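One thing: could you explain this record?
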Amino acid sequence: MHHHPRVRARVCSGTPKLQGRISLNPIDHLDPMGTIMMVISSISGFGIGWGRPVRVNPYNFRSPRWDNLRVSLWGPLSNILTAAVFGLSIRYFHSFMSPSAMMFVIALTKISLGLAFFNLIPIGPLDGSHILAALLPREKAIAYEYFMARYGLIIFLGVIFIRPEILWALIGPPRDLLLHLFTGY
């Protein structure tokens, strides 16, 4: 029996629900190599790691370009929403928090905002590359996606290990602005 390529792709690639990824259990989202990297790099003073990527099936999209944009925006937006909840709790309920609880909530707010702006950097494989590709004219988007597929990971690693100050210049100012807006500090 011969299967149409689209049908085969639908059968072979699972959605997050089929992968058991619709869960608040952090263990379901751990990537073994990303976790090991986070531990090793944290010991050196520069912590970087990653979770398992969320696989999506583009054949389920009605409008692939715009639906991919929406999917890619949800990662950073969920981090910003998390930061808003924690940050606003500091703004309005700080008098009820112990100093250690307040430090913990501020750290969660900073981490969530840092992750959001880190993921918005338009270098593959980060969400920002998918967002930029969706916003570019179709021909430029195809060329950009091709370039990122070939060189994105190399550029990404180069920025992290050779020029990390570029990351802090991109992440720090917007993170600090939203931190102040949410927390008042």
In short: The chain has two domains: 1-60, 62-185.
